[in-house]
Amino acid sequence: MRLRTYNQEDVNGKKVLVRVDFNVPLKNGEVADDTRITESVPNLLRLLGFGARLALVSHLGRPRGERKPEYSLEPVAHALERILKARRAKVSGVTFVRDCVGPEVERAIAPRWRGDIVLLENSRFHPGEENNDPGFSARLAAPFDAYVNDAFGTAHRAHATTVGVTAHLPSFAGMLVLKEVTALTRVAEKPRRPFVVLTGGKKVSDKLPLLQHLCGRAEAVLVGGAMVFTLARARGLATGKSLVQEDHIDACKALLQNYQDSTTKLVLPEDVVVTDDLREPKLKENRALDSIGEDEMGVDIGPQARQSFANHLSRACTVFWNGPMGVFEQKPFDAGTIAVARAIAANKSAFSVVGGGESVEAVKKLGFADAVSHLSTGGGASLEFVSGQELPGLKALAI
Question: Catalytic: 203?
């Protein structure tokens, strides 16, 4: 996919609306993880260097079209200003505006000179954002001369700030979007082989498009997380109290048959860690996948599976990972996720891409970020890209 990119002539002296992905976790009114903010900075500095006057727009959380103070982007404005000052960037400040459309926005950007950045309030405070309402899109675009989308994590959403505004302004892809597309294209279209995909998470329904698309395209697809148990039930295995999506068992049966008839090996864990209760666990045992007790639930891949997955990953030339291997947020059920993160980092010769919140968190927590070729900022977007699906936010920028 070729995307429209900007040069100095496109933005110099112009008021530019920049879609960023500042959907970051907040704790006690402050940003708890500023990774997405930090990733946006190179593009902002490039635009400023080209003489653009910037206003940034983003969503945060799911306020569902209502103005809710706990979803305000004001703490993000303070975090962005701190990050820019720490980098000694030539930025005079970050001004927060308590709406993303209307007279307040127009007043805020009218007198701005080079080096000042405006951050607009949460776009999802307006129902027109997620509805991609044409009228709301026109109001967003009205004060500006150009639009740059640098929020890859939202590219799979046809919202007003990702698609609607492009009907009203000259529109371009930002640096982070280009970086993501370049890395993911390398995985999705011409991977060096063997190509090994590792996927996990709770719901197999979220990953079925990926699993279907990869059949015949990858050498091996390794499956962990709770999604294993719907596939196990489709194989006729007992799964105890493990999470199973009953309405997806038939789809999983068809998937298993497709893999059986293909050149791609679908690898389920040979063993799993089980418990009796997540809140107050009295039991923590290892079980073969076909030996889960009636009152037990699977919460992680087991030691044999960790070794088997690591062996596959060690031989890979291209790796894509999306989704945890177990209940990563709760010790000791994070062991499988940690093990595969170590295995990916240990393969120095592979081109590796990691996407999805928990997967990226595991890599960073273990200090392996520099050992991975690309950490994707878009979990759902990267998943859909590698699944071969069309991303509306990218289509709107395509040449």
Answer: yes
pLDDT digits (tens, 9 = 90+) for 290-342: 999 999 999 999 999 999 999 999 999 999 999 999 998 888 999 999 999 99
- The residue annotated as part of the active site, out of 174, 224, 378, 380, is 380
Q: Is 380 a catalytic residue?
A: yes
- Which one of the listed residues 357, 364, 388, 395 is annotated catalytic? 357
What's the CATH fold of domain 191-386?
Rossmann fold (3.40.50)
Cα-Cα end-to-end distance for the chain: 8
Please pick, among 19, 36, 124, 207, the residue that the annotation labels catalytic. 36
- Whether 385 and 184 have beta carbons less than 8 Å apart is answered as yes
pTM value > 0.85: yes
Residue 60 · residue 121 · CB < 8 Å: no
Whole-angstrom Cα distance, residue 347 to residue 316? 8
Domain 8-176 CATH (choose: 3.40.50.1260, 3.30.70.1050, 3.40.640.10, 3.20.20.70): 3.40.50.1260
Catalytic option among 4, 67, 68, 203: 203
